[in-house]
Amino acid sequence: MDGDKRREQIIKILSDNTFPVAGTELAGRLGVSRQVIVQDIALLRAVNKNILSTNKGYILFHEEKSKKAFKRTYKVMHGNDRIREELYSIVDCGGRLLDVVVEHPIYGQIMVDLIINSRQDVDNFVMQVEENCTKPLNALTDGLHYHTVEAKDEQTLDRIGEKLEEGGFLII
C-alpha cells in the first residue's frame, strides 16, 4: 500500500473511533512500523488534519461534535495521592476530561491532551504514571492545575463542579 492510501486508511480508522487508537495498533493494522505511522500523522497534520496525540494514542478531533458539547475549565489542586479520586469525580458525573494545564513560572502554560472518559481510562492513566515512575504535570506547580471538561449540558458541568468542591479539589 502506498503512502497516500495508508494515510487515507489512518483517517478512516480514526474517524470510525471515538476513543484514541494507539500508534502500535495502527502500525499493526496497516503492516508498517510505528515510526512510519508517526511520520504519516505528521504529514496529515501538515495538511490540516486535526489529529490529537494523547497518552493512549491518536484521535481525530471533530469540530462539529465539539460545538454540540458544553465545556468548562476547573481550577483544582491536590497532591499526587488524590489523582484517581479527582478524576473519578469528573467521569462519575458524566464528564469527559479533555486536558490538563499548568502555569509554570518559567515555561509558561503547559497543556497536555488526556481524553479521559471513564473509570477505566482513569485507572489506565494512573497505572501509566506509576509504572513509568513519572510525576504528573501538576507536580510542577505544587498540585495547582486546570482541567477542561466536556459534558452534554450545563447541569452536568455544575454537578462536576459541586463534586470537585465537596472533595476539596476546586479552587475558586
Q: First CA to last CA: what distance?
A: 54 Å
Superfamily (CATH H level) name of the largest domain: 3H domain
| Anisotropy-based shape | globular
Structural class: alpha+beta
- Helix % is 40-55%
Task: Report the order of strands and helices.
Answer: HHHEEHEHEEHEH
Characterize the biggest β-sheet.
Answer: 4 strands, antiparallel
Name the features.
single chain, 172 residues, alpha+beta, Arc Repressor Mutant, subunit A, Histidine-containing Protein, Chain: A, 2 domains, four-stranded antiparallel β-sheet, two-stranded antiparallel ribbon, 7 helices, globular
Task: Give the topology.
Blueprint: H1 3-16, H2 23-30, H3 34-46, E1 51-54, E2 57-60, H4 63-68, E3 70-77, H5 83-92, E4 96-104, E5 108-116, H6 119-131, E6 144-151, H7 154-166
Antiparallel strand pairs: 1-2, 3-6, 4-5, 4-6
Helix pairs in contact: 2-3, 5-6, 5-7
